[in-house]
Amino acid sequence: MAMDKLELQIYNTLTKQTEVFKSKEPGKVKMYICGVTPYDFSHIGHARSYVAFDILYRYLKYLRYDVVYVRNFSDVDEKIIRRANEFGEDPIALSGRYCQEFLKDMDDLQCLPPIHQPRVSEHMEEIKEMIAKVMTNGYAYTVDGDVYFSVDSFPEYGRISGQKLEDNRAGVRFAVDSRKLNPADFALWKAAKPGEPSWDSPWGRGRPGWHIECSAMSAYYLTHSFDIHGGGMDLIFPHHENEIAQNCAACGPESNVSYWMHNGFVTIDDEKMSKSLGNFFTIREVTRLYHPIALRYFLLGTHYRSPVNYSISQIEIASESVYYIYQTLHDSEEALSAFQQGTVTETKVKGVRVSPQAQECISELRNELETKLSDDLHTPAILNAALQEALRLMNSYVNMLKKKQQQLSVILYLSELQKEVKAVLDVLGLLLGSTCAEVLQQFKERALKRADLTEEDILLAIEERALARKNKEFARSDQIRTDLVAKGIALMDIGT
User: Fold this and answer.
1) What average pLDDT does range 178-182 have in this prediction?
2) Of the residues 221, 273, 448, 491, which has the fewest C-beta atoms closer than 10 A?
3) DSSP letter assigned to residue 65
4) What highest taxon heads this organism's lineage (predicted)?
């Protein structure tokens, strides 16, 4: 499908409808995604959000857009300050450490690094300048060194969330601060408290409120008018609602974001993920036992706007699916090794054409990638249909070559299919830089870790089972196999 005929459609939270994407500047996209508050290891809810927007980033690049992708770190925050006090550590140092841990997780999950990754602590001047504009335009007021945005001064408050001011009854969502003109007014600047990091400002020493940070940084890197602003659904209110209000208050009609995108929540065994419920998982806890690419595959298995339910059984299925992909690629590479070594030259296959079956499979795979991703990033359909058919056909060609049916046409079919599968996996962020053999070994190592076994344990079990089979002790043989399966280790009997 020609690139110029592809129309990307995305759901816009602001308009509550799916729209054809049109960038403000032809061929260029400016995108801002709200980042983490780095006070601890990131959890799988973070993984869900940043994998989703990584798919968007990758697909925009695939469509040949020049993308300026900005994702921030909110490294000045109450949670960071509390954690730093617990550890007896400087808050900025603590947040810096967890920023690096987050970046490692993102790298493990194959998320491409954004063009800019600003930190709040590095943009105080821009934040103060924006607050000053809001105040000058009459949308904010000061109380004892704090600066509050007056929601009553902004009639359009509630544009994206649908929240009405009268719904924000005093004391229901938050403790009442009698100094505020309206309980829903939110802080742009907070007066300094003992032991907290603070900066000089026209209103006294203090630090910024949460919402103003993203407004100031997005404006600094992308201007006040850009294409896409995204984050989790939990950010629609109050964070993004407040961003819209203060953006318009500071810049008026110049402030405009075309598309607001939000990803769905993660539940654990159909319950909300929560530390208090004991079902809270960090990315690192999951990837210690399962390959990071298995977690990415699992997340892509649900549409980004739908809730995704994490469970051991589901991550096991995802792990097996990715293992199957890489085993197929590995077998394909092995089967084609004669061609790669020059036994069969490119000259010999020059006149051979790809079979209609293989060509149809290749076309369908590329067409499905483009059609489904253009339809608001529907990744599950790609994983479950044309990709599976391509892998099945690859395995059939591999078996033909193993049986010495080494027709030049089969070599060509398999080679072309392999290239197309890898190209699709690359767009989905599922193609690793390691060799297939290395990836398979990484999967095996994690499977052994989950089973609390070593390779020596497996070899002993295999020897014991072989002896049992030899002695016709089939009940014993079956029990050994069953015990291994219960620990996530599957044995295959070849040639029996």
Assistant:
1) 92
2) 491
3) -
4) Eukaryota
**Residue 119 contacts residue 109 (beta carbons within 8 Å):** no
401-408: average pLDDT: 76
Which helix (H) or strand (E) segment is 392 a member of? helix 386-402
Distance CA 471, CA 328 (A): 35
CA distances, 1 to each of 19, 322, 389, 406, 456 (Å): 20, 27, 20, 32, 51
CA 288 vs CA 169, 284, 448, 456: distances in Å: 45, 6, 12, 21
Whether cis (ω within 30° of 0) applies to the bond prior to 38 is: no
Give strand pairing partners of 214: none
Contact 424, 366 (CB under 8 A): yes
Whether the Cβ atoms of residue 142 and residue 203 lie closer than 8 Å to each other: yes
With H, G, I as helix, E, B as strand and everything else as coil, classify residue 54: helix
Which residue, 215, 230, 228, is CA-closest to 30? Answer: 228
User: pLDDT by residue (tens digit) across 257-271?
Assistant: 999 999 999 999 888
In our burial notation (b when 16+ CB lie closer than 10 A, e otherwise), range 381-408 reads bbbeebbeebbebbbebbebbeeeebee
The predicted-structure confidence for 299-320, as pLDDT tens digits, reads as follows 999 999 999 999 999 999 999 9
Residue whose pair of structure tokens reads 């293992």 in the numeric block = 323
How far apart, in whole angstroms, are the C-alpha atoms of residue 369 and residue 55? Answer: 12
Euclidean distance between CA atoms 105 and 42, whole angstroms: 8
Label residues 321-358 b or e (16+ Cβ within 10 Å = b): bbbebbbbbbbbbebbeebeeeebeeeeeeeeebbeeb
Ordered DSSP codes for 407-418: -HHHHHHHHHHH
Separation of alpha carbons 148 and 139, rounded Å: 9
